[in-house]
Amino acid sequence: MTAEATMTDRDRDEHRSEVDVPIRWIDDAPPQQLPAGATLGAPVPRGVVTSPEDLALVDETGAPVQAQLWPLATWPDGSVKWAGIGLGAQTEPSAGYRLVVPSSATAATPPATVTSSVRRDVVGADPRSGAEATKSAGENAGSEAAATVAVAEDPDGVTIDTGALTVRIPARGGVLVESLAIAGQEVARGGVLVSSVQDQPEPNHPGREHGVGQVDSVTVEQAGPVRAVVRIEGRHHTGSGRAWLPFTVRLVAAAGATHLRLVHSFVWDGDANADFLSSLGVRFDVPLRAQPHDRHVRLAGADGGLLREAVRGLTGLRRDPGEAVRNAQMAGEPTPSADTWDQDVARLAQWIPTWDGWSLRQHNANGYTIRKRTTPDHPWIGVAEGTRSGGFGYLGDTGGGLGLGLTGFWQSHPTGIDIAGAATETGSLTMWLWSPDADPMDLRFYHDGLGQDTYADQLDALDITYEDYEPGFGDAHGIARTHELDVVAYPATPSVEQLAVDVAHTVEPPRLAPTPEALHAAGVLGDWDLPDRSTPARARLEDRLDALLDFYVGQIDQRSWYGFWNYGDLMHSYDADRHTWRYDVGGYAWDNSELSPDLWLWTAFLRTGRADVFRLAERLTRHTGDVDVYHAGQWKGLGTRHNVQHWGCSAKQLRISTPAYRRHHYFLTADEHTRDLMLELRDSDQTFLGLDPVRKVRPDAATYTPQRSALGVGLGTDWSSLAATWLADWEITGNTRSRDRLLGTMTDIGALPRGFFTGEALYDLDTGRFDTSRDRVGASHLSIMFGLVEICSELVDLVDEQDAPGFADAWLQYCRLYLGTPEEQVAELGAEHGGAPFEQPHSRVLAYAAHRLGRADLAERAWQAFFVGGERMRGEFVSAREEPPYVLAPVDDAPTLWTNDAAQGSLATMQCLALIGEHLPEE
Question: Are residues 281 and 320 in the same domain?
Fold first, then answer.
């Protein structure tokens, strides 16, 4: 039992007043509206709150706000560590909020009793309910009556009622959403996933086969009263009966909202040499009851612009129906009765064409086209061209309609929007995640192997292109992709102003987060401090941190790091001669989380609260968690090292899939998909039995054979990934297996004669323990660079000494001695550890030792190591503008830049400032 578990009720009551977490809009101002509600996470002090019902949300005035609260993670003593917070739709959001214990902040009515809202099965749902499910939800009662969301289940499906929108979800079959209705009026129906595949990569291949997503299970994950979440799982079924492309769709509804957030994830389980996905989309049918001139189409262009058209236009004609008629049609309002129209337009209207279909295509990041046609057997007519569409379409009439938007639309090209059947009784609105008019998806490996048949050849080639190639390993089978869509039901064609708000909400959803000060006070997620420019030396380091962040934010657009599989990732290394990133050079291309840019960006957001950094980090988390990790197949649970293609490298390792890169996003956003990504790894220790991560360079390769009772597990990149996995599972679900393996291996590391300097320990897969008799000395410069520093810092503070004896001392020894002199290493270890120094990244572990031991001499040595600089980037970071004709377009050039240095140098800066900032030399 930990010390915290012995806290008395009186102690806990005294500490409850400490719960006061300020929450801000990351863009520093509230949105104009909050049409779909908001979801976030906030930290709670240890040992203070045992149930979310003890918490409440208040606005900036202290008035209670209707909110749903549930635990995202718990402390070892069972108290709430992170709380999920769900807000309903709001017309005038507050400028800020606070998470409090009600008695300490307001005399208002205490929160309503928390009721269970665990995941429940409807049809064949995932049996992992209960402990793994969202645990609870509660409503904070304010002075005004507020809308609630209710969920009803029956054998045939689920019904969600937000108070403004009713959604019917069938339990099985080829339909995701049966109907959407407002005030009893159905405005959309038949929401489906559609796809097509062909066996050749040529565009418009005649053998294209079409498919529809078939639902296998429907699960209620949250049932209100403010936020409801329904999870739908299934596979695409083609006309020939093939079942493939497993998908998960979550529908998220907020109280009072007419918006649904649709989060769609799928796993690629095809054969890259035979399957070329030629389309993937989400389609809804829209009933059309009004006359063609009262039916309306809206498409988002660039920079907030909107195309406004009617199925039968009454403007620009030879005869004018009158200003009132024209104004009504342009506004999307019912036109005056036809018998009031001027100049006999009503009689002549039969000769005005009705337009049946519109098509918007965004096949690259900088150009879209819009076309329309009268019938499917007549040609398309050009409407407009532009740069970057907002990715939102509307079809409906004066009695209701549907809007469909895709966040990251132009960034995730090739995308598209189709409106069809607008001149019939039932039209359709399709959002294409992969446009059917684009080249089919080609996931084959990008070269033929170049004759690299042996490990010797592959290591030799690695020495020139940095690409770790192995035949058959450049396989995309098992990677995934997630999209976030807005489904918006309207009781009538919306005004331009309202539609502009909804498009903006899709393009950049508003985000709430605890303030940096509140996050820092909570002491979560590693060692970092708030920005401090109180001295010239501190100011220089802060300026360098900001300059690197600004540079990467700008590089995404300058270098067009966009596209279906690429959006969100960063590049690894720069080519100063070509003034480009090394997009085509083996292992120097896409970064795939190499040396922890994810941790760099998330830590930077924690301390600064910068909105652009949050969105950069969130996109990176979405990408790396899905695309760079295998979710099915022979390498399930492993990620892929950096390469020209995200799945191309033969190094498949836990250091890329580690939850150390996902926990920040989950805790700050309460995102269910990110939670899934972490929990699916809970048995990832099994991967060491099937694939040795160091098989090509293992010193004992001639004698080593993976055995269940003696698997070689590195105590750096390998164990840090396992530890992050077990910690995430334990704190999120309470899984005792993960807890025991985490605490057990921590204890074993403490018991090893050389602790972390053992380098690799032998792991028993069945017991989850290390063989503590192994006595050897070795270390790698990579050991700390994939989350080990951050996870060990957390574990030392989180776990009581008696639960993992010796671990804190073993970690402190490693931090103190890695950059120690050869004499110090020999004296204590019996030999030098042999790891390359890499001074700047390792300055942060020496800083940790200096801080823990209170030793100014170690702090001085840590700063000396820090100022040695990075692997390539020595001294100050500099960039210069390069102009045509020497480059395609003006770009910011950074000749010495590696993302390795940017990430590790920034992490070292932030951690050294937090731990030994008072020892920072001025010169």
Answer: no
